[in-house]
Amino acid sequence: MSRYFGNRVNPDRFAPSQLKFYAVLIVLAVFLVLPIVFIFSQALKPINELFLFPPEFLVQHPTMENFVNLFKQTSVTAIPMSRYLFNSIIVTGLVVVLTSLLSSMAGYALSKMEFKLKRLIFEANIIALMFVPAAVGIPMYFIMVKLGLTNNILGNVIPLLAVPVNVFLVKQFVDQVPDALVEAAFIDGASHFQVFQKIILPMIRPAMATVAILAFQSAWNNTDTSTLYINNESLKTFAYYMGTLASNVGNQVAGQGIAAAAALIMFLPNLLIFIFMQRRVIDTMAHSGLK
Amino acid sequence: MLTLRKSRTQGGEAVPGRRSWLSPRAAKTWRRELEAYLFVGPFLVLFLLFIVVPVVVAIYLSFTYFNTIQPPKFIGLQNYVNLITQDSEFLMYVLPNTLEFSVLVGPGGYILSFWLAWLLAQIPRKSRTFLTLAIYSPALTASVAMSVVWLVVFSGDATGYLNSFLMRLGIIHQPVQWVQSPHWLMPIMIVVSLWNSMGVGFLAMLAGILNVNQELYDAGYMDGVKNRLQEVWYITIPSMKPQMLFGAVMAIVGTFNAGMIGVQLSGANPTPQDAGQTIIAHIYDYGFIRYEMGYASAISVVLLLIVYGLSRFAWRLFGERE
What we know:
The structure holds 2 protein chains of 2 kinds.
Chain A: H1 19-43, H2 47-51, H3 65-72, H4 81-112, H5 118-128, H6 137-146, H7 164-174, H8 179-187, H9 192-203, H10 205-220, H11 224-229, H12 238-248, H13 253-285
Helix pairs in contact in A: 1-13, 3-13, 4-7, 4-10, 4-12, 5-7, 7-10, 8-9, 10-13, 12-13
Chain B: H1 2-13, H2 24-61, E1 64-65, E2 73-74, H3 78-85, H4 88-121, H5 125-140, H6 143-153, H7 161-168, H8 185-195, H9 200-210, H10 214-222, H11 228-239, H12 241-257, H13 261-266, H14 279-289, H15 293-318
Antiparallel strand pairs in B: 1-2
Protein backbone atom coordinates (compact mmCIF):
# COMPACT_ATOMS: atom_id res chain seq x y z
CA MET A 1 0.00 0.00 0.00
CA SER A 2 1.52 3.26 -1.05
CA ARG A 3 1.06 6.34 1.03
CA TYR A 4 -0.29 9.48 -0.56
CA PHE A 5 2.17 12.33 -0.78
CA GLY A 6 0.74 15.55 -2.06
CA ASN A 7 2.66 18.15 -3.93
CA ARG A 8 4.45 20.60 -1.74
CA VAL A 9 2.50 23.76 -1.24
CA ASN A 10 4.45 26.81 -2.38
CA PRO A 11 6.79 24.75 -4.62
CA ASP A 12 10.22 26.06 -5.54
CA ARG A 13 10.10 25.21 -9.21
CA PHE A 14 7.87 24.10 -12.01
CA ALA A 15 6.93 20.44 -12.29
CA PRO A 16 4.74 18.80 -14.95
CA SER A 17 2.32 17.73 -12.24
CA GLN A 18 1.45 21.40 -11.77
CA LEU A 19 0.10 21.67 -15.31
CA LYS A 20 -3.47 20.91 -14.22
CA PHE A 21 -3.36 23.83 -11.76
CA TYR A 22 -2.01 26.09 -14.46
CA ALA A 23 -4.74 25.01 -16.84
CA VAL A 24 -7.55 25.90 -14.44
CA LEU A 25 -5.87 29.09 -13.25
CA ILE A 26 -5.15 30.40 -16.72
CA VAL A 27 -8.68 29.77 -17.96
CA LEU A 28 -10.15 31.56 -14.92
CA ALA A 29 -7.61 34.37 -15.00
CA VAL A 30 -8.40 35.03 -18.67
CA PHE A 31 -12.09 35.16 -17.85
CA LEU A 32 -11.43 37.56 -14.98
CA VAL A 33 -9.16 39.83 -16.99
CA LEU A 34 -11.36 39.96 -20.07
CA PRO A 35 -13.50 42.93 -18.96
CA ILE A 36 -10.32 44.84 -18.15
CA VAL A 37 -8.83 44.09 -21.55
CA PHE A 38 -12.09 45.40 -22.92
CA ILE A 39 -11.58 48.80 -21.20
CA PHE A 40 -8.15 49.12 -22.80
CA SER A 41 -9.46 48.07 -26.17
CA GLN A 42 -12.50 50.31 -26.03
CA ALA A 43 -10.47 53.34 -24.88
CA LEU A 44 -8.14 53.01 -27.85
CA LYS A 45 -10.83 52.50 -30.51
CA PRO A 46 -11.33 55.23 -33.10
CA ILE A 47 -14.89 56.37 -33.55
CA ASN A 48 -15.62 54.28 -36.64
CA GLU A 49 -14.68 51.11 -34.76
CA LEU A 50 -16.97 52.06 -31.88
CA PHE A 51 -19.79 52.30 -34.44
CA LEU A 52 -18.76 49.09 -36.15
CA PHE A 53 -21.47 46.53 -36.73
CA PRO A 54 -21.18 43.74 -35.84
CA PRO A 55 -18.95 45.03 -33.01
CA GLU A 56 -15.39 43.76 -32.68
CA PHE A 57 -14.05 42.98 -29.21
CA LEU A 58 -10.48 44.10 -29.84
CA VAL A 59 -9.29 47.37 -31.28
CA GLN A 60 -7.94 47.20 -34.87
CA HIS A 61 -6.31 50.62 -35.27
CA PRO A 62 -5.54 52.05 -31.83
CA THR A 63 -5.68 55.81 -31.44
CA MET A 64 -5.42 58.36 -28.60
CA GLU A 65 -8.44 60.25 -29.97
CA ASN A 66 -10.67 59.37 -27.01
CA PHE A 67 -8.17 60.71 -24.49
CA VAL A 68 -7.79 63.95 -26.42
CA ASN A 69 -11.58 64.33 -26.52
CA LEU A 70 -11.86 63.48 -22.84
CA PHE A 71 -9.42 66.23 -21.89
CA LYS A 72 -11.20 68.72 -24.14
CA GLN A 73 -14.58 67.81 -22.75
CA THR A 74 -16.26 69.80 -20.02
CA SER A 75 -19.23 68.76 -17.96
CA VAL A 76 -22.71 70.15 -18.57
CA THR A 77 -22.02 72.77 -15.91
CA ALA A 78 -18.88 73.90 -17.73
CA ILE A 79 -16.44 72.44 -15.23
CA PRO A 80 -13.39 71.19 -17.12
CA MET A 81 -12.41 67.55 -16.72
CA SER A 82 -9.05 68.60 -15.29
CA ARG A 83 -10.82 70.16 -12.30
CA TYR A 84 -12.38 66.79 -11.34
CA LEU A 85 -9.05 65.10 -11.81
CA PHE A 86 -7.33 67.71 -9.65
CA ASN A 87 -9.94 67.26 -6.92
CA SER A 88 -9.48 63.51 -7.02
CA ILE A 89 -5.72 63.79 -6.71
CA ILE A 90 -5.99 66.12 -3.69
CA VAL A 91 -8.71 64.01 -2.04
CA THR A 92 -6.91 60.72 -2.64
CA GLY A 93 -3.60 62.13 -1.43
CA LEU A 94 -5.16 63.38 1.79
CA VAL A 95 -7.03 60.13 2.41
CA VAL A 96 -3.94 57.99 1.86
CA VAL A 97 -1.70 60.08 4.13
CA LEU A 98 -4.24 60.61 6.88
CA THR A 99 -5.57 57.05 6.92
CA SER A 100 -2.06 55.61 7.04
CA LEU A 101 -1.17 57.90 9.91
CA LEU A 102 -4.38 57.36 11.89
CA SER A 103 -4.41 53.61 11.39
CA SER A 104 -0.77 53.11 12.28
CA MET A 105 -1.03 55.24 15.43
CA ALA A 106 -4.20 53.51 16.55
CA GLY A 107 -2.75 50.10 15.65
CA TYR A 108 0.35 50.83 17.70
CA ALA A 109 -1.64 51.99 20.71
CA LEU A 110 -3.93 48.95 20.55
CA SER A 111 -0.97 46.61 20.33
CA LYS A 112 1.77 48.04 22.52
CA MET A 113 0.27 50.59 24.92
CA GLU A 114 -1.70 49.97 28.09
CA PHE A 115 -4.82 51.99 28.76
CA LYS A 116 -8.21 51.42 30.28
CA LEU A 117 -10.42 51.25 27.20
CA LYS A 118 -7.95 49.28 25.10
CA ARG A 119 -9.88 46.02 25.11
CA LEU A 120 -13.20 47.74 24.55
CA ILE A 121 -11.90 49.74 21.58
CA PHE A 122 -10.29 46.68 20.04
CA GLU A 123 -13.47 44.64 20.43
CA ALA A 124 -15.57 47.49 19.02
CA ASN A 125 -13.23 47.66 16.06
CA ILE A 126 -13.60 43.91 15.45
CA ILE A 127 -17.37 44.21 15.50
CA ALA A 128 -17.08 47.19 13.16
CA LEU A 129 -15.33 44.95 10.61
CA MET A 130 -18.86 43.75 9.96
CA PHE A 131 -20.10 47.28 9.42
CA VAL A 132 -21.88 47.87 6.11
CA PRO A 133 -21.45 51.60 5.35
CA ALA A 134 -24.11 51.53 2.65
CA ALA A 135 -26.70 50.67 5.30
CA VAL A 136 -26.35 53.95 7.18
CA GLY A 137 -26.36 56.39 4.28
CA ILE A 138 -29.17 58.37 5.86
CA PRO A 139 -27.72 59.11 9.31
CA MET A 140 -24.36 59.73 7.64
CA TYR A 141 -25.96 62.44 5.56
CA PHE A 142 -27.27 64.25 8.65
CA ILE A 143 -23.92 63.96 10.40
CA MET A 144 -22.20 65.45 7.39
CA VAL A 145 -24.68 68.35 7.37
CA LYS A 146 -24.19 68.94 11.12
CA LEU A 147 -20.40 68.93 10.73
CA GLY A 148 -20.60 71.41 7.88
CA LEU A 149 -18.90 68.99 5.55
CA THR A 150 -21.43 69.19 2.75
CA ASN A 151 -20.16 71.41 -0.01
CA ASN A 152 -16.67 71.16 1.33
CA ILE A 153 -13.86 69.29 -0.35
CA LEU A 154 -13.12 67.66 3.00
CA GLY A 155 -16.53 66.02 2.72
CA ASN A 156 -14.84 63.70 0.25
CA VAL A 157 -12.02 62.96 2.69
CA ILE A 158 -13.15 62.73 6.30
CA PRO A 159 -15.85 60.05 6.00
CA LEU A 160 -13.27 57.70 4.46
CA LEU A 161 -10.67 57.93 7.21
CA ALA A 162 -11.98 55.62 9.93
CA VAL A 163 -11.63 52.13 8.44
CA PRO A 164 -11.74 49.27 10.96
CA VAL A 165 -10.01 46.84 8.58
CA ASN A 166 -6.98 49.12 8.32
CA VAL A 167 -6.55 49.50 12.08
CA PHE A 168 -7.04 45.77 12.46
CA LEU A 169 -4.37 44.92 9.87
CA VAL A 170 -1.83 47.32 11.39
CA LYS A 171 -2.54 46.11 14.92
CA GLN A 172 -2.02 42.49 13.91
CA PHE A 173 1.25 43.47 12.27
CA VAL A 174 2.53 45.51 15.21
CA ASP A 175 1.81 42.45 17.36
CA GLN A 176 4.66 40.74 15.47
CA VAL A 177 7.19 43.31 16.70
CA PRO A 178 8.74 41.72 19.81
CA ASP A 179 7.81 43.42 23.08
CA ALA A 180 11.43 43.09 24.22
CA LEU A 181 12.55 45.40 21.44
CA VAL A 182 10.08 48.09 22.47
CA GLU A 183 10.92 47.68 26.15
CA ALA A 184 14.63 48.00 25.46
CA ALA A 185 13.96 51.32 23.79
CA PHE A 186 11.99 52.55 26.82
CA ILE A 187 14.81 51.59 29.13
CA ASP A 188 17.07 53.70 26.94
CA GLY A 189 14.72 56.57 27.68
CA ALA A 190 12.74 56.70 24.46
CA SER A 191 9.22 58.12 24.46
CA HIS A 192 6.24 56.46 22.82
CA PHE A 193 6.54 58.86 19.92
CA GLN A 194 10.16 57.98 19.39
CA VAL A 195 9.46 54.26 19.60
CA PHE A 196 6.61 54.64 17.15
CA GLN A 197 8.64 56.66 14.71
CA LYS A 198 12.02 54.95 14.95
CA ILE A 199 11.13 51.31 15.64
CA ILE A 200 7.54 50.57 14.76
CA LEU A 201 7.09 52.50 11.53
CA PRO A 202 10.14 50.99 9.79
CA MET A 203 9.10 47.50 10.87
CA ILE A 204 5.49 47.67 9.76
CA ARG A 205 6.13 48.96 6.24
CA PRO A 206 4.26 46.06 4.58
CA ALA A 207 1.17 46.80 6.64
CA MET A 208 1.47 50.50 5.87
CA ALA A 209 1.74 49.74 2.17
CA THR A 210 -1.40 47.62 2.39
CA VAL A 211 -3.32 50.30 4.23
CA ALA A 212 -2.14 52.89 1.73
CA ILE A 213 -3.35 50.77 -1.20
CA LEU A 214 -6.73 50.10 0.38
CA ALA A 215 -7.08 53.80 1.21
CA PHE A 216 -6.07 54.75 -2.31
CA GLN A 217 -8.70 52.46 -3.79
CA SER A 218 -11.43 53.65 -1.45
CA ALA A 219 -10.75 57.32 -2.23
CA TRP A 220 -9.89 57.14 -5.91
CA ASN A 221 -12.85 54.90 -6.77
CA ASN A 222 -15.33 56.64 -4.51
CA THR A 223 -18.44 58.25 -6.02
CA ASP A 224 -20.74 58.19 -2.99
CA THR A 225 -19.44 61.25 -1.15
CA SER A 226 -19.63 63.43 -4.27
CA THR A 227 -23.11 62.19 -5.09
CA LEU A 228 -24.57 62.43 -1.61
CA TYR A 229 -22.79 65.24 0.23
CA ILE A 230 -21.42 67.65 -2.35
CA ASN A 231 -23.68 69.96 -4.34
CA ASN A 232 -21.03 72.28 -5.69
CA GLU A 233 -19.98 70.77 -9.01
CA SER A 234 -16.44 72.14 -8.78
CA LEU A 235 -15.74 70.11 -5.62
CA LYS A 236 -16.73 66.71 -6.98
CA THR A 237 -14.28 63.97 -7.89
CA PHE A 238 -13.17 62.34 -11.10
CA ALA A 239 -14.90 59.08 -10.16
CA TYR A 240 -18.16 61.02 -9.93
CA TYR A 241 -17.53 62.64 -13.31
CA MET A 242 -16.76 59.20 -14.69
CA GLY A 243 -20.20 58.13 -13.47
CA THR A 244 -21.91 60.94 -15.37
CA LEU A 245 -20.01 59.95 -18.51
CA ALA A 246 -21.04 56.34 -18.04
CA SER A 247 -24.70 57.23 -17.73
CA ASN A 248 -24.49 58.94 -21.14
CA VAL A 249 -23.06 55.86 -22.81
CA GLY A 250 -26.49 54.61 -23.75
CA ASN A 251 -27.39 57.81 -25.56
CA GLN A 252 -24.42 58.41 -27.80
CA VAL A 253 -21.89 55.99 -29.17
CA ALA A 254 -19.20 58.68 -29.30
CA GLY A 255 -19.50 58.92 -25.52
CA GLN A 256 -18.48 55.27 -25.22
CA GLY A 257 -14.91 55.92 -26.24
CA ILE A 258 -14.57 58.91 -23.92
CA ALA A 259 -16.11 56.99 -21.03
CA ALA A 260 -13.76 54.07 -21.69
CA ALA A 261 -10.79 56.44 -21.73
CA ALA A 262 -11.92 57.82 -18.38
CA ALA A 263 -12.42 54.27 -17.07
CA LEU A 264 -8.84 53.49 -18.05
CA ILE A 265 -7.60 56.57 -16.18
CA MET A 266 -9.58 55.33 -13.18
CA PHE A 267 -8.13 51.84 -13.38
CA LEU A 268 -4.43 52.36 -14.21
CA PRO A 269 -3.26 53.98 -10.92
CA ASN A 270 -4.91 51.17 -8.94
CA LEU A 271 -3.11 48.59 -11.04
CA LEU A 272 0.31 50.25 -10.95
CA ILE A 273 0.29 50.76 -7.20
CA PHE A 274 -0.77 47.20 -6.58
CA ILE A 275 1.94 45.81 -8.88
CA PHE A 276 4.60 47.72 -6.96
CA MET A 277 3.33 46.68 -3.56
CA GLN A 278 2.00 43.17 -4.16
CA ARG A 279 4.68 41.42 -2.07
CA ARG A 280 4.07 43.64 0.93
CA VAL A 281 0.34 43.20 0.73
CA ILE A 282 0.67 39.41 0.79
CA ASP A 283 3.08 39.69 3.73
CA THR A 284 0.54 41.76 5.65
CA MET A 285 -2.31 39.45 4.85
CA ALA A 286 -0.43 36.57 6.46
CA HIS A 287 -1.20 38.23 9.80
CA SER A 288 -4.76 39.19 8.96
CA GLY A 289 -6.38 36.27 10.74
CA LEU A 290 -9.32 36.76 13.09
CA LYS A 291 -9.22 34.65 16.21
CA MET B 1 4.99 44.78 29.43
CA LEU B 2 5.27 44.23 33.15
CA THR B 3 8.97 44.99 33.28
CA LEU B 4 8.38 48.01 31.13
CA ARG B 5 5.82 49.53 33.46
CA LYS B 6 8.01 48.88 36.45
CA SER B 7 11.02 50.58 34.97
CA ARG B 8 8.99 53.58 33.95
CA THR B 9 7.43 53.96 37.39
CA GLN B 10 10.84 53.95 38.95
CA GLY B 11 11.91 56.57 36.48
CA GLY B 12 8.95 58.74 37.46
CA GLU B 13 9.54 58.48 41.17
CA ALA B 14 13.15 59.38 40.67
CA VAL B 15 12.11 62.97 40.03
CA PRO B 16 12.32 64.47 43.53
CA GLY B 17 10.32 67.34 44.91
CA ARG B 18 7.78 67.26 42.13
CA ARG B 19 4.57 68.62 43.59
CA SER B 20 1.26 67.60 42.29
CA TRP B 21 -2.26 67.45 43.59
CA LEU B 22 -2.31 63.88 42.38
CA SER B 23 -0.37 61.15 44.04
CA PRO B 24 2.68 60.24 41.92
CA ARG B 25 1.09 56.97 41.05
CA ALA B 26 -2.20 58.49 39.89
CA ALA B 27 -0.29 61.07 37.91
CA LYS B 28 1.60 58.26 36.23
CA THR B 29 -1.65 56.50 35.32
CA TRP B 30 -3.08 59.73 33.99
CA ARG B 31 -0.05 60.38 31.86
CA ARG B 32 -0.14 56.88 30.50
CA GLU B 33 -3.84 57.18 29.61
CA LEU B 34 -3.34 60.59 28.06
CA GLU B 35 -0.44 59.40 25.96
CA ALA B 36 -2.44 56.43 24.71
CA TYR B 37 -5.29 58.69 23.63
CA LEU B 38 -2.88 60.88 21.73
CA PHE B 39 -2.29 57.82 19.58
CA VAL B 40 -5.69 56.22 19.42
CA GLY B 41 -7.72 59.43 19.84
CA PRO B 42 -7.88 60.72 16.27
CA PHE B 43 -9.04 57.36 15.00
CA LEU B 44 -11.41 56.97 17.92
CA VAL B 45 -13.12 60.31 17.26
CA LEU B 46 -13.70 59.48 13.59
CA PHE B 47 -14.73 55.94 14.48
CA LEU B 48 -17.36 57.28 16.85
CA LEU B 49 -18.54 59.98 14.44
CA PHE B 50 -18.80 57.90 11.29
CA ILE B 51 -19.51 54.39 12.54
CA VAL B 52 -20.98 54.41 16.05
CA VAL B 53 -23.11 57.54 15.79
CA PRO B 54 -24.65 56.60 12.38
CA VAL B 55 -25.66 53.22 13.77
CA VAL B 56 -27.15 54.81 16.90
CA VAL B 57 -28.97 57.44 14.83
CA ALA B 58 -30.26 54.75 12.45
CA ILE B 59 -31.63 52.82 15.43
CA TYR B 60 -33.28 55.99 16.80
CA LEU B 61 -34.77 57.00 13.43
CA SER B 62 -36.11 53.50 12.92
CA PHE B 63 -38.60 54.17 15.72
CA THR B 64 -39.83 57.39 14.15
CA TYR B 65 -41.72 58.76 11.20
CA PHE B 66 -39.35 61.14 9.47
CA ASN B 67 -39.82 62.80 6.10
CA THR B 68 -36.87 65.26 6.47
CA ILE B 69 -39.21 68.29 6.43
CA GLN B 70 -40.87 67.86 9.82
CA PRO B 71 -38.88 66.72 12.83
CA PRO B 72 -38.93 62.96 13.49
CA LYS B 73 -42.09 61.78 15.25
CA PHE B 74 -41.85 58.79 17.58
CA ILE B 75 -44.05 55.93 16.39
CA GLY B 76 -42.62 52.98 18.31
CA LEU B 77 -42.28 49.75 16.42
CA GLN B 78 -44.62 50.81 13.63
CA ASN B 79 -41.89 50.82 10.96
CA TYR B 80 -40.86 47.29 11.83
CA VAL B 81 -44.47 46.15 11.90
CA ASN B 82 -45.03 47.74 8.48
CA LEU B 83 -41.89 46.12 7.15
CA ILE B 84 -43.11 42.61 7.88
CA THR B 85 -46.82 43.12 7.29
CA GLN B 86 -47.39 45.96 4.80
CA ASP B 87 -44.40 46.22 2.49
CA SER B 88 -45.33 43.71 -0.20
CA GLU B 89 -42.43 44.89 -2.34
CA PHE B 90 -40.06 43.94 0.48
CA LEU B 91 -41.66 40.58 1.15
CA MET B 92 -42.28 39.54 -2.45
CA TYR B 93 -39.15 40.81 -4.15
CA VAL B 94 -36.53 42.40 -1.92
CA LEU B 95 -36.20 39.57 0.57
CA PRO B 96 -36.12 36.71 -1.97
CA ASN B 97 -33.77 38.72 -4.22
CA THR B 98 -31.43 39.53 -1.35
CA LEU B 99 -31.46 35.89 -0.32
CA GLU B 100 -30.73 34.63 -3.82
CA PHE B 101 -28.05 37.25 -4.42
CA SER B 102 -26.30 36.79 -1.10
CA VAL B 103 -26.38 33.00 -1.05
CA LEU B 104 -24.78 32.82 -4.50
CA VAL B 105 -22.41 35.77 -4.21
CA GLY B 106 -21.45 35.37 -0.54
CA PRO B 107 -20.60 31.68 -0.12
CA GLY B 108 -20.07 31.38 -3.89
CA GLY B 109 -17.48 34.14 -3.97
CA TYR B 110 -15.94 32.86 -0.77
CA ILE B 111 -15.51 29.32 -2.07
CA LEU B 112 -14.23 30.66 -5.39
CA SER B 113 -11.69 32.85 -3.55
CA PHE B 114 -10.48 29.94 -1.46
CA TRP B 115 -10.28 27.61 -4.44
CA LEU B 116 -8.30 30.11 -6.52
CA ALA B 117 -6.01 30.91 -3.59
CA TRP B 118 -5.42 27.20 -3.06
CA LEU B 119 -4.65 26.65 -6.75
CA LEU B 120 -2.23 29.57 -6.68
CA ALA B 121 -0.42 28.07 -3.72
CA GLN B 122 0.35 24.94 -5.77
CA ILE B 123 2.52 26.72 -8.35
CA PRO B 124 5.94 28.39 -8.05
CA ARG B 125 6.31 31.96 -6.91
CA LYS B 126 7.05 33.70 -10.20
CA SER B 127 4.03 32.56 -12.14
CA ARG B 128 1.95 32.83 -8.97
CA THR B 129 2.74 36.54 -8.67
CA PHE B 130 1.57 37.13 -12.20
CA LEU B 131 -1.62 35.07 -11.93
CA THR B 132 -2.48 36.57 -8.53
CA LEU B 133 -2.37 39.99 -10.11
CA ALA B 134 -4.69 38.86 -12.91
CA ILE B 135 -7.15 37.31 -10.47
CA TYR B 136 -7.07 40.25 -8.06
CA SER B 137 -7.36 42.86 -10.82
CA PRO B 138 -11.19 42.92 -10.86
CA ALA B 139 -11.06 44.05 -7.23
CA LEU B 140 -8.88 46.96 -8.34
CA THR B 141 -11.53 48.32 -10.66
CA ALA B 142 -14.06 50.87 -9.56
CA SER B 143 -17.65 49.84 -10.02
CA VAL B 144 -18.27 53.20 -11.68
CA ALA B 145 -15.55 52.52 -14.26
CA MET B 146 -16.82 49.01 -14.87
CA SER B 147 -20.34 50.27 -15.49
CA VAL B 148 -19.01 51.50 -18.85
CA VAL B 149 -18.00 47.96 -19.73
CA TRP B 150 -21.19 46.30 -18.54
CA LEU B 151 -23.42 48.85 -20.25
CA VAL B 152 -21.74 48.23 -23.58
CA VAL B 153 -21.43 44.46 -23.17
CA PHE B 154 -25.02 43.98 -22.01
CA SER B 155 -26.49 46.66 -24.25
CA GLY B 156 -29.99 45.67 -25.26
CA ASP B 157 -29.77 46.17 -29.04
CA ALA B 158 -27.92 44.19 -31.69
CA THR B 159 -24.78 46.35 -31.28
CA GLY B 160 -24.37 45.08 -27.71
CA TYR B 161 -21.31 42.83 -27.50
CA LEU B 162 -23.06 39.92 -25.81
CA ASN B 163 -26.06 40.09 -28.13
CA SER B 164 -23.87 40.32 -31.21
CA PHE B 165 -21.67 37.46 -30.00
CA LEU B 166 -24.58 35.14 -29.21
CA MET B 167 -26.33 36.03 -32.47
CA ARG B 168 -23.21 35.23 -34.45
CA LEU B 169 -23.07 31.83 -32.77
CA GLY B 170 -26.74 31.38 -33.56
CA ILE B 171 -27.69 30.88 -29.90
CA ILE B 172 -30.20 33.72 -29.98
CA HIS B 173 -31.94 35.29 -32.96
CA GLN B 174 -33.32 38.45 -31.36
CA PRO B 175 -31.30 40.87 -29.27
CA VAL B 176 -32.06 40.44 -25.55
CA GLN B 177 -32.65 43.45 -23.29
CA TRP B 178 -30.24 42.05 -20.73
CA VAL B 179 -30.25 44.59 -17.91
CA GLN B 180 -33.82 45.76 -18.48
CA SER B 181 -35.17 42.24 -18.46
CA PRO B 182 -36.60 41.00 -15.14
CA HIS B 183 -35.43 37.56 -16.15
CA TRP B 184 -31.77 38.36 -16.82
CA LEU B 185 -30.98 41.20 -14.44
CA MET B 186 -30.40 39.02 -11.38
CA PRO B 187 -28.14 36.45 -13.11
CA ILE B 188 -26.09 39.32 -14.55
CA MET B 189 -25.82 40.98 -11.13
CA ILE B 190 -24.58 37.68 -9.69
CA VAL B 191 -22.01 37.08 -12.41
CA VAL B 192 -20.70 40.65 -12.19
CA SER B 193 -20.45 40.45 -8.38
CA LEU B 194 -18.74 37.07 -8.47
CA TRP B 195 -16.30 38.47 -11.00
CA ASN B 196 -15.53 41.16 -8.46
CA SER B 197 -15.36 38.98 -5.35
CA MET B 198 -11.66 38.11 -5.15
CA GLY B 199 -10.70 40.97 -2.85
CA VAL B 200 -8.94 41.43 0.47
CA GLY B 201 -10.35 38.15 1.78
CA PHE B 202 -8.86 36.29 -1.18
CA LEU B 203 -5.42 37.79 -0.49
CA ALA B 204 -5.72 36.89 3.18
CA MET B 205 -6.58 33.30 2.38
CA LEU B 206 -3.73 33.07 -0.14
CA ALA B 207 -1.29 34.29 2.50
CA GLY B 208 -2.86 31.87 4.99
CA ILE B 209 -2.42 28.85 2.71
CA LEU B 210 1.17 29.80 1.91
CA ASN B 211 1.98 30.03 5.60
CA VAL B 212 0.70 26.61 6.62
CA ASN B 213 3.64 24.74 8.10
CA GLN B 214 4.92 22.06 5.72
CA GLU B 215 5.54 19.76 8.69
CA LEU B 216 1.81 19.61 9.30
CA TYR B 217 1.34 18.16 5.82
CA ASP B 218 4.13 15.66 6.35
CA ALA B 219 2.56 14.58 9.62
CA GLY B 220 -0.81 14.33 7.88
CA TYR B 221 0.56 11.98 5.21
CA MET B 222 1.94 9.77 7.96
CA ASP B 223 -1.47 9.68 9.60
CA GLY B 224 -3.04 8.48 6.39
CA VAL B 225 -4.27 11.50 4.45
CA LYS B 226 -5.14 9.86 1.15
CA ASN B 227 -5.95 12.60 -1.29
CA ARG B 228 -5.96 16.31 -1.86
CA LEU B 229 -9.48 16.82 -0.66
CA GLN B 230 -8.61 15.26 2.69
CA GLU B 231 -5.43 17.30 2.77
CA VAL B 232 -7.41 20.52 2.32
CA TRP B 233 -10.12 19.47 4.76
CA TYR B 234 -8.01 18.04 7.58
CA ILE B 235 -4.83 20.10 7.32
CA THR B 236 -5.05 23.28 5.25
CA ILE B 237 -8.35 24.70 6.49
CA PRO B 238 -7.87 23.88 10.20
CA SER B 239 -4.40 25.46 10.18
CA MET B 240 -5.60 28.73 8.66
CA LYS B 241 -8.88 29.22 10.51
CA PRO B 242 -8.13 32.86 11.38
CA GLN B 243 -7.68 33.74 7.70
CA MET B 244 -10.75 31.70 6.79
CA LEU B 245 -12.73 33.74 9.30
CA PHE B 246 -11.34 37.05 8.10
CA GLY B 247 -12.19 36.05 4.53
CA ALA B 248 -15.70 35.04 5.56
CA VAL B 249 -16.38 38.33 7.33
CA MET B 250 -15.07 40.26 4.31
CA ALA B 251 -17.24 38.15 1.99
CA ILE B 252 -20.40 38.78 4.04
CA VAL B 253 -19.80 42.53 4.28
CA GLY B 254 -18.79 42.76 0.62
CA THR B 255 -21.89 40.91 -0.52
CA PHE B 256 -24.29 43.23 1.26
CA ASN B 257 -22.35 46.31 0.22
CA ALA B 258 -22.58 45.16 -3.41
CA GLY B 259 -26.38 45.28 -3.34
CA MET B 260 -26.54 48.48 -5.43
CA ILE B 261 -25.13 46.72 -8.47
CA GLY B 262 -28.60 46.09 -9.86
CA VAL B 263 -29.40 49.80 -9.73
CA GLN B 264 -26.06 50.63 -11.39
CA LEU B 265 -26.63 48.12 -14.18
CA SER B 266 -30.25 48.91 -14.96
CA GLY B 267 -29.89 52.62 -14.26
CA ALA B 268 -33.14 52.67 -12.29
CA ASN B 269 -34.15 52.44 -8.65
CA PRO B 270 -36.39 50.50 -8.16
CA THR B 271 -34.95 48.13 -10.72
CA PRO B 272 -37.23 46.96 -13.58
CA GLN B 273 -40.12 45.04 -12.02
CA ASP B 274 -38.07 44.83 -8.83
CA ALA B 275 -36.03 42.05 -10.42
CA GLY B 276 -32.74 43.26 -8.99
CA GLN B 277 -34.05 45.00 -5.89
CA THR B 278 -31.84 44.04 -2.97
CA ILE B 279 -32.13 45.30 0.58
CA ILE B 280 -29.56 48.09 0.05
CA ALA B 281 -31.37 49.33 -3.05
CA HIS B 282 -34.62 49.24 -1.06
CA ILE B 283 -33.04 51.42 1.67
CA TYR B 284 -31.90 54.00 -0.89
CA ASP B 285 -35.24 53.87 -2.63
CA TYR B 286 -37.13 54.72 0.58
CA GLY B 287 -34.48 57.01 2.05
CA PHE B 288 -33.32 59.17 -0.81
CA ILE B 289 -36.11 58.84 -3.36
CA ARG B 290 -39.30 58.63 -1.28
CA TYR B 291 -37.80 60.48 1.72
CA GLU B 292 -39.28 58.07 4.22
CA MET B 293 -36.17 58.15 6.32
CA GLY B 294 -37.61 56.54 9.43
CA TYR B 295 -38.81 53.56 7.47
CA ALA B 296 -35.55 53.31 5.53
CA SER B 297 -33.65 53.38 8.82
CA ALA B 298 -35.69 50.46 10.10
CA ILE B 299 -34.62 48.47 7.03
CA SER B 300 -31.00 49.53 7.70
CA VAL B 301 -31.20 48.23 11.24
CA VAL B 302 -32.60 44.92 10.01
CA LEU B 303 -29.75 44.71 7.51
CA LEU B 304 -27.09 45.44 10.13
CA LEU B 305 -28.61 42.74 12.34
CA ILE B 306 -28.55 40.24 9.47
CA VAL B 307 -24.88 40.99 8.73
CA TYR B 308 -24.00 40.74 12.39
CA GLY B 309 -25.87 37.46 12.74
CA LEU B 310 -24.17 35.94 9.70
CA SER B 311 -20.74 37.07 10.90
CA ARG B 312 -21.42 35.45 14.27
CA PHE B 313 -22.25 32.27 12.37
CA ALA B 314 -18.89 32.47 10.56
CA TRP B 315 -17.30 32.96 13.97
CA ARG B 316 -18.91 29.74 15.16
CA LEU B 317 -17.43 27.89 12.21
CA PHE B 318 -13.90 29.21 12.34
CA GLY B 319 -13.47 31.19 15.54
CA GLU B 320 -11.00 29.96 18.14
CA ARG B 321 -12.55 31.61 21.15
CA GLU B 322 -16.05 31.40 22.62
